[in-house]
Backbone:
């Protein structure tokens, strides 16, 4: 059952090597490998679009520093704030 959305994740398909570590490590299983290939010939990860809690586990498991950005919904709004990854993200 889908809970209240608390976060989301973006994956830079040009940085992702398709190792699948993020997919295996995500507790609510909301990441998957795409059927399409990226320029490296790998199947990059993507967010399924629901159930992300913004826990950040995928970010810390990923061996590619620029591949994953985690966003958390701000307390009083619908806007997302990058919390892990991304050029201007603040550390937890
Ligand atoms: S932040 Fe947590 S819940 Fe969201 S995709 Fe990453 S591992 Fe899954
Ligand atoms: S852990 Fe990183 S490199 Fe591996 S599939 Fe996920 S985003 Fe791609």
Residues:
């Amino acid at each position: 059952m889908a809970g209240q959305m608390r976060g989301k994740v973006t994956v830079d398909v040009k940085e992702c090597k398709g190792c699948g570590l993020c997919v295996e490590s995500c507790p609510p299983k909301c990441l998957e490998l795409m059927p399409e290939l990226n320029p490296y010939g790998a199947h990059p990860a993507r967010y399924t679009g629901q159930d992300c809690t913004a826990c950040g586990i995928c970010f810390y498991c990923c061996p590619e520093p620029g591949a994953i950005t985690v966003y958390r919904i701000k307390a009083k709004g619908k806007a997302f704030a990058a919390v892990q990854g991304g050029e201007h993200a603040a550390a937890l």
